[in-house]
Amino acid sequence: MEEQNNQKQNLYSRSISFDRKKLPNFLISVKLKYVKLGYHYLISNAMYLILIPLLGVSLTHLSTFSINDLIQLHENLKFNFVLMTLCSSLIVFLATLFFMSRPRDVYLIDFACYKPPQELSCTKETFVERSIITKAFTEENILFQKKILERSGLGQKTYFPPSIIRFPPNPCMDEARKEAEEVMFGAIDEALEKTGVKAKDIGILVVNCSLFNPTPSLSAMIVNHYKLRGNVLSYNLGGMGCSAGVISIDLAKQLLQVHPNSYALVVSMENITLNWYMGNNKSMLVSNCLFRMGGAAILLSNKSADRRRAKYQLVHTVRTHKGADDKSYHCAFQEEDDTKIIGVSLSKDLMAVAGEALKTNITTLGPLVLPMSEQLIFFATLIARKIFKMKMKPYIPNFKLAFEHFCIHSGGKAVLDEIEKNLELSEWYMEPSRMTLYRFGNLSSSSLWYELAYSEAKGRIKKGDRTWQIAFGSGFKCNSAVWKALKTINPAKEKNPWIDEIHEFPCSYA
After folding, report:
1. H-assigned helices in 135-281
2. Which domain of life is it from (predicted)?
3. 83 vs 415, higher pLDDT
4. Residue partners of 8: CB distance under 8 A and separation at least 6
């Protein structure tokens, strides 16, 4: 039995190398049903596309009316009570229908990313040293982790919680709660300070943390600490992986549609203390090498008065779930190893599964954001290949025409390499994701906000710019959020984890 396990481990170690695993080429195939889904979203808003030209024609025609024409129209309607009543009722009905069906605008007033203190900084050498001191890992697996670290794209200043970085390690429930409080309260305090919003004014609270779900919940921890009001709508999302940050934004958006004049606080984080794997299953050791300490707090509003001071407006959220497929469902799976130690097992199919989910999400998002010229070429090419069976290369739209900035979940260097290649993005577009991975590591659901903070610190965000946040995680899920900048961000007036050291980036990395 032991010999079989060793053979299995050796086989896995040969196949787990992320640098050799490739995302599926997006040029190979695009499924028509996902394109239809994207166009369904577009057509569902067709009423506005139809009414706007009609309104324009009507206004143009009315502008030609003279005073005498208006007097004559009034005289005719005055003696036709039925017609006047019908016209008035129609106007009231259409106005009511428009305002009732029109979605509320959702604004991002500001956000904050937690930056741990310097004493929690962990170099690669410190990581290996702590791993050796625990005496939990075999010599072979120490070398395996060292090899993964060298290829990971992480730098020398990432952070671990005190329970892991200090000696002796003390991963327990009490330490996990302390880590959660430090990260969440640190980010929330900064977000409230930046926005000037009082805790009692928050009506919606959404917290996501995949692997640490105590009782009372993390959301209850926040309610208790900040003494939020008794009727606050509180939600705690667990087990939803690295893409849960966008899911939380989408949930907050849906709640803001039905609760007028509300503030929504979204908190995204992951907890390392109880999830540092102390076994010798190689598929579970990879997460030790990638995940680090961090979190973000985002304050949203649907108040029209907040538009003047908000940084961004939420334009779209698109969610893709591939969990119906067994291979996708099991590719990132929390379970016990042969010695009953719990860890998250990463399948050798992870890269392929992530690529398929990403491709599906992109195909759905395309019709919502791409200019008509790109959509026509893409759709014509697709019809030619799928319907008329013409042998031609699939056309992948140029998403740089739709977005000025890209925030791609910094899950690992190899993933970013393949996305850069398949979407034909330059180093400039990939810089926020690569530098976040290098400086802070894989921060799970909060990484997208460190990436956006990087672009702000660089002074890249201009009024009207569109930013695409895209993340993927266990389940398997891929989710997107599209934001439009409502103002030009002046880095001199910003406070975020990059400001004090932004002059050091971009930097070279292995």
Report:
1. 139-152, 162-165, 173-195, 218-226, 244-258
2. Eukaryota
3. 415
4. none
- The DSSP code for 275 is G
Among residues 222, 193, 221, 114, which one has the least CA distance to residue 161?
A: 114
442 is catalytic: yes
Measured in degrees and rounded to the nearest 5, phi and psi for residue 263 equal -105, 140
The residue annotated as part of the active site, out of 361, 409, 422, 479, is 409
pLDDT beyond 70 at 14: no
Dump the DSSP string for 318-339.
Answer: EEEE-TTSHHHHHSEEEEE-TT
Residue 263, amino acid? Y
Task: State yes or no: is 40 an active-site residue.
Answer: no
Other Cβ atoms within 10 Å of 34 Cβ, number: 18
Query: Residue 321: which of 126, 88, 480 has the closest Cα?
Result: 480
Separation of alpha carbons 96 and 90, rounded Å: 10
Out of 225, 259, 316, 321, the active site residue is 321
pLDDT at residue 279, rounded to an integer: 94
Ordered by where they begin, the domains of the chain are: 46-101 (no CATH), 105-496 (3.40.47.10)
For the question of residue 405 being annotated catalytic, the response is yes
The alpha carbons of the chain give a radius of gyration, in whole angstroms, of 26
Active site residue 242: yes
The residue with tokens 């790109």 is: 374
Whether 63 has a pLDDT exceeding 90, the answer reads: no
pLDDT at position 9 over 60: no
pLDDT digits (tens, 9 = 90+) for 290-313: 999 999 999 999 999 999 999 999
Known catalytic membership, residue 407: no
